[in-house]
Amino acid sequence: MLTLASQILRTDVSGMPLEWITYQDAVRLYYLGQVVYSCGSLLYRVRGGYNAKSGLRSVIELNSIIATEGSVQAVMKGRNGYVPPLDNKALFRRDDFLCLYCGEHYSSSRLSRDHVTPISQRGQDVWNNVVTACKRCNNYKAGRTPEQAGMELLAIPFIPTHAEYIYLKGRRILADQMEFLRAHFPRTSPLRDRKVKVYTVEGPGRH
Prior knowledge:
By secondary structure, the chain is α/β, with parallel strands linked by helices. Helix content is about 25%, strand content about 25%. It has helices at about 25-30, 70-80, 90-95, 135-140, 145-150, 160-170, 175-180; strands spanning about 10, 15-20, 35-50, 55-70, 110-115, 130-135, 205.
């Protein structure tokens, strides 16, 4: 079901995913003339004021994906070596809300960030040294490596690309947006074949 919280996927002119934006942000980009083209499902019809001469009311149709004029920031995010900011929401989603020690799925409130090589042993708080762990496993592991604690790590932590990070930060992702993002995932990405809940559009919202 379409709500005001439904997000629009913004890309650059070449189609590289940039960020999620609100419909208000999209209207502003149209007003500034920065939208080059759009694709995907029609999400909203936003009605503006009436033209004094013609008497016609302005209407902006907003699709689920819009391409805008590029920027240096977009180029930097597309380069090898780009590292997205680390936060628990994206981390838990990267690991599919799975404790990478006991192999059980949990809600966010029962999960924690574990450092494979502990900070106390000169480990770093970076993507390829952190995994999702339930609080019980994390407490048991304490300040030890998995080997020291006799625990098996079920998957190797990885650094998401920018396109993967956008997926990890999204909410209520539409089917066409997910298909678009997947096309930008690396072929070896663990996220590429993951079954995820996606949403469809029953009809455009009007504002």
